[in-house]
Design brief:
Largest sheet: 7 strands, mixed
Number of strands: 16
Helix content: 25-40%
Radius of gyration: 20 Å
CATH class of the largest domain: Alpha Beta
CATH superfamily of the largest domain: Probable inorganic polyphosphate/atp-NAD kinase, domain 1
Distance between the termini: 33 Å
Number of domains: 2
Strand order of the largest sheet: 10-9-8-11-13-15-16
CATH architecture of the largest domain: 3-Layer(aba) Sandwich
Order of helices and strands: EHHEHEHEHEHEHEHEHEEHEEHEHEHEE
């Protein structure tokens, strides 16, 4: 029998709610109301549950959490009766609830704090406990730049289990980053380092810090020329966020929503800054291709900042119609690290795995594995 351990669990119930509806974040009551009005369906409970199920063998583990949507529901969904502390107003949780929960977990002496959310949630946890408590993030937000998150919920559960079973000893200092969401929605990426959390670490299970692109002008122009030359008439081109994809619309002489998803048909912009529902409508009766780039320093292709291109969209378009673009510099910086996806749908994630060609320049391709 393993030594009995305590796992603290915090779920931010509104994390990621703005992603598929194209709001680029979930911070603030007004944005959350907008997201629900647009038909957003929260995914965080499922993601927290996936992580807990992966831990397994929890008879030796006590889970301490907050009521209802902040953790209790996820634990019970796994057949676990947790120790519930604190209090919340259901449907009205705030960042202060997250901070209070984290401070309570510290007082409870948990061995590891597992939290589900995005960069804002990581920032709240850091504000509350700093480096005084081992912590690990289950990725469930829209903008996940911080290095405190596992690559996906299953990896979070696996890593937490390894740590709680004393199979990982050392803790790693990982950056907590957050963006100014309002500036982000205006196309201005203003990231700030808030501090460090101590996390259990294994290279294959934790995402890296997102790194900015620099000095890639010639490479991006070459990529853009290649993609535009090969565009086919009467096909929709769903173009994901980023400076790499913006070079393609620049080549077409069109505008680009830097942090949004735009749609091109016959080399004309037919929709800008679209959400999942709008994409589904545009896809009716049409053939389409998706053009995306990977996140620098991380290698993520789907599931970070481009959630508008949802699993349903990807499945409709098909793996064979996905065009991944990247500068050689960005690929080189990843070393031997594979690319990866975290769409929130296990079947779609499996469909996307394997080897793919990445457009790295005019008539230039690199072959990379997607895990």
């Amino acid at each position: 029998m393993a030594e009995r351990k305590k796992l603290g669990l915090i779920v931010n119930p509104v994390a990621g709610i703005g992603g598929r509806v194209g709001l680029k974040g979930s911070d603030g009551a007004e944005i959350q109301r907008q997201a629900l009005k647009l038909g957003a369906v929260p995914q965080v409970l499922n993601r927290a549950t996936q992580a807990l199920e992966k831990i397994g063998n929890i008879d030796w583990l006590e889970i301490i959490t907050y009521p209802g949507e902040m953790g209790e529901d996820a634990a019970k969904a796994c057949g676990v009766e947790p120790k519930v502390i604190g209090s919340i107003k259901p449907g009205e949780t705030t960042a202060e609830d997250t901070r209070k929960a984290a401070r309570d977990m510290l007082r409870q002496g948990v061995d590891l704090l597992l939290f589900a959310g995005g960069d804002g949630t990581a920032r709240d946890v850091y504000t509350a406990v700093g480096e005084n408590l081992p912590a690990l993030g289950i990725p469930a937000g829209v903008k996940i730049h911080s290095a405190v998150y596992a690559t996906n919920p299953l990896s979070a559960g696996e890593l937490a289990a390894l740590y709680l079973k004393d199979r990982i000893g050392d803790l790693h200092e990982a950056e907590v980053m957050d963006l100014d969401e309002e500036a982000f929605r205006q196309g201005v990426v203003s990231a700030k380092l808030y501090g460090y959390l101590k996390i259990p670490f294994r290279t294959s299970l934790v995402q890296n810090l997102k790194m900015p692109s620099a000095g890639e002008g010639a490479s991006l122009a070459s990529i853009a020329y290649d993609v535009v030359e090969k565009m086919e008439d009467d096909w929709l081109y769903i173009i994901g966020p980023g400076t790499t994809t913006r070079a393609i619309t620049d080549e077409l002489g069109l505008g680009k929503t830097l942090i949004g998803v735009d749609v091109v048909l016959n080399r004309e912009l037919v929709a800008a800054d679209v959400n999942e529902a709008q994409l589904l409508d545009l896809l009716k009766g049409r053939r389409a291709k998706i053009i995306v780039t990977l996140i620098g320093g991380q290698g993520c292709v789907f599931g970070r900042g481009n959630q508008q291109i949802s699993p349903q969209i990807i499945d409709k378009v098909g793996r064979e119609n996905i065009i991944v673009v990247s500068s050689p510099e960005k690929l080189y910086a990843l070393g031997q690290q594979p690319l990866w996806v975290d769409t929130g749908d296990e079947d779609v994630d499996r469909m996307l795995t394997g080897y793919i060609k990445v457009v790295t320049g005019y008539n230039q391709r690199a072959v990379r594995k997607v895990s």
